Amino acid sequence: MKDLNCTRCKATDSPNRITNVCKRCASPLLVRYGLDRLKHSWDRESLRERSFDMWRYRELLPVDDPEEIVSLGEGGTPALPFTRIGENWGIPRLMMKDEGFNPTGTFKARGAAAGITRAKALGIQKVAMPTAGNAGGAWAAYAAAAGMELMVAMPVDAPESNQRECLLYGADLQIVDGLISDCGKWVERAVEEEGYFNAATLKEPYRVEGKKTLGLEIAEQNGWAWPDVIVYPTGGGVGLIGIWKAVEELARIGWVTGKPPRMVAVQMEGCAPIVEAFRNGWKESRFWEGARTAASGLRVPKALGDFLALDALYRSDGTAVAVSDTTAKTALRTLARTEGCWICPEGAAGLAAIRKLRREGWIDGRESVWLMNTGTGMKDSEWAG
Ligand SMILES: *Cc1c(COP(=O)(O)O)cnc(C)c1O
User: Does residue 246 belong to any structural domain of this protein?
Assistant: First the structure.
């Protein structure tokens, strides 16, 4: 790590101090690495001897000493060809990255592993965070593994499976009668009054680094080249920001030099602030009033990193799509019968969006398309029928 860099005013900070956001303008900070040096000192060959988990890319992760790593075996998830449904829909090169194989069943494990690893290395003992559900479960597991205290604020309508897992891992669970944004305010108070470290999305710089490894794995599994299109179900947009960071860093170290992927953000019609912003060409989203969708991971009415996610969409020549809960549910069931995979509601939204984009011609039948299935279907079993 070289420094922390402000995403708006470009001020820098040290990664060796406990830091949340930019001290000058309160915007998110992102880690910068010594990429020019890495370009010469780090070779793809070095990966051969490493196990297939997210820490195989540790030179591009916030870790000074491998001994510090708090791991439950996250990352290294399979990339599966969806040949049958792909043929049926006229996209024979359709692939799925199955994040349901992660500890706690979602790709939130990547962010939690990186965030908790760094927090522990910096000597933090008490962490608090708002969550729509899955992030809380993941952070609770990693906090337990690291012997740290975690307080989680979750909206009342968060899935019961998420509430139970937080309690099981010994987190202090606070149920808030409101939206994720209200949980955020609740956490800020606990941070001020009780000395917790705030680990809310993009209020600490390291979670996105873990999610970035999703992009690093896609590149490696695709033979160190990008697919034409990457489809990402977008809530807070951290995965999207992370994958795009991987695209930029791999280009800078010369590991992937070809055309970058077109990034697609998928949201639900009942909560689609990023889609609305993209359609209007805005740099930021507006708060989405009355957010409604049964896919809890996508119930984020206004994301702190919206401007970064939108920037990735514009720069990659990508797009943003909203689908209905009903279409997503149909896609989920069709997929289960055709390919034998039970994906999460958010992944199902992505799948439905792919079909829509193919029908509209935005995706060409020759293109390679990677769907990010962000979690296992089993945590939302009511979606099964
Ligand atoms: C959190 C979550 C998302 C959204 O991820 P962001 O990085 O916040 O956009 C999508 N799917 C699932 C299953 C999630 O838990």
Answer: yes
Question: In this structure, which residue's CA is closest to atom 1 in ligand 1?
Answer: 297
Q: Is residue 59 part of a domain?
A: no
Q: Is residue 72 part of a domain?
A: no
Same domain, 340 and 261: yes
Q: Give the H/E segment covering residue 76.
A: none
Distance CA 157, CA 131 (A): 11
Task: Tell me, yes or no, whether 39 lies in a domain.
Answer: yes
Same domain, 97 and 218: yes
Does ligand 1 come within 6 angstroms of the Cβ of 293? Answer: no
Our count of domains for the chain comes to 3
Domain of 223 in residue numbering reads as 79-106+205-383
Q: Are residues 213 and 189 in the same domain?
A: no
Does residue 119 sit in the same domain as residue 181? yes
Do 227 and 274 belong together in one domain? yes
Instruction: In whole angstroms, give the CA distance from residue 134 to residue 168.
Output: 14
Q: Where among 177, 198, 219 does a domain terminate?
A: 198
Q: What is the pTM of this model?
A: 0.97
How many angstroms separate the alpha carbon of residue 39 from the centre of ligand 1?
31
Å from CA of 36 to ligand 1 middle: 32
Question: Over its length of 385 residues, how does the chain's per-residue pLDDT go in tens digits?
Answer: 999 999 999 999 999 999 999 999 999 999 999 999 999 999 999 999 999 999 999 999 999 999 999 999 999 999 999 999 999 999 999 999 999 999 999 999 999 999 999 999 999 999 999 998 899 999 999 999 999 999 999 999 888 999 999 999 999 999 999 888 899 999 999 999 999 999 999 999 999 999 999 999 999 999 999 999 999 999 999 999 999 999 999 999 999 999 999 999 999 999 999 999 999 999 999 999 998 999 989 999 999 999 999 999 999 999 999 999 999 999 999 999 999 999 999 999 999 999 999 999 999 999 999 999 999 999 999 898 7
Evaluated on CA atoms 44, 49, 54, 59, the torsion sign reads negative
Residue 336 CB neighbours (<10 A): 16
Looking at the fold, whether 268 and 369 belong to one and the same domain comes out as yes
Classify residue 351 as exposed, middle or buried by CB count within 10 Å of its CB (0-12, 13-18, 19+): buried
Ligand 1 contacts CB of residue 376 (under 6 A): no
Sheet holding 12-13, edge to edge: 12-13, 3-6, 29-32
